[in-house]
Automatic annotation (TrEMBL):
Protein name as annotated: 3-hydroxybutyrate dehydrogenase
Pfam families reported for this sequence: adh_short_C2 (PF13561)
Xref: Gene3D superfamilies: NAD(P)-binding Rossmann-like Domain (3.40.50.720)
Provenance organism: Roseivivax halodurans JCM 10272
GO biological process: monocarboxylic acid metabolic process
GO MF term list: 3-hydroxybutyrate dehydrogenase activity
Family: Belongs to the short-chain dehydrogenases/reductases (SDR) family.
PROSITE patterns found in the cross-reference section: ADH_SHORT
Amino acid sequence: MHVQRPQGPRADFPSEAFAMTQSLKGKTAIITGSNSGIGLGVAHELARAGADVVINSFTDREEDHKLAADLGKEHGVTARYVKADLSKGDEARGLIREVGRCDILVNNAGIQHVAPIEEFPVEKWDAIIAIMLSAAYHTTAEALPMMREAGWGRVVNIASAHGLTASPYKSAYVSAKHGLVGMTKVVALETAKEPITANAICPGYVKTPLVEAQIPDTAKKYNMSEEEVIEKVILDRQPSKEFATTGQLGQTAVFLCSPAADQITGTTISVDGGWTAL
């Protein structure tokens, strides 16, 4: 019998209790693609644990800067927003240089496009690879010297269950995420004798505003209730039949930055409700 675990904002392990066991005070974390969704959730949890945070996207709106200011005020840390178009290597590197310090780098930025490979638009392929793989190379290459100078560092790449397995019609996304997992291992080996680690978090389906917005239309498409479409369509490959939350991913990132994870490097942590166990 399936026992449904509690849902809602308190379904995670309590963030405040978790943060009390961790301390990232004095560390600066840069999270790419973080003015919403997973990236913003990770930023909140790193800030809750005491890290100063830099959030990022390709826009430069008043609300982006207010989002950072509110985040910093909520957690009592310094938070700022820095615009960078991660499809451009020089801007990805410029993000790290502009901040000037990077103890924790979370490569999270991503986009998606779905199409058969013979119909996949070249410009979409190029954009996905640039934003989700090449950008992580550029930011990591800029951040590692800063981590070495500081004598400590953490690279946390937000990969995906699709970094470990595949689905049809997602050739660019799957290729980028597999590549990100591979690059994570290389960085880990190159820093193995230093107080720097590199790991990848591999989420399954995560409850973000973008996913939530898709549920009503998908329900209409399949003539199902929203509850049915969540279980039978969206979460078809996720055995738990529950979304992961941005808070859970953020707390996983905090764990990877903690002393308990000092010897965890070059690996993946799946937060996918059993998807990759199939």
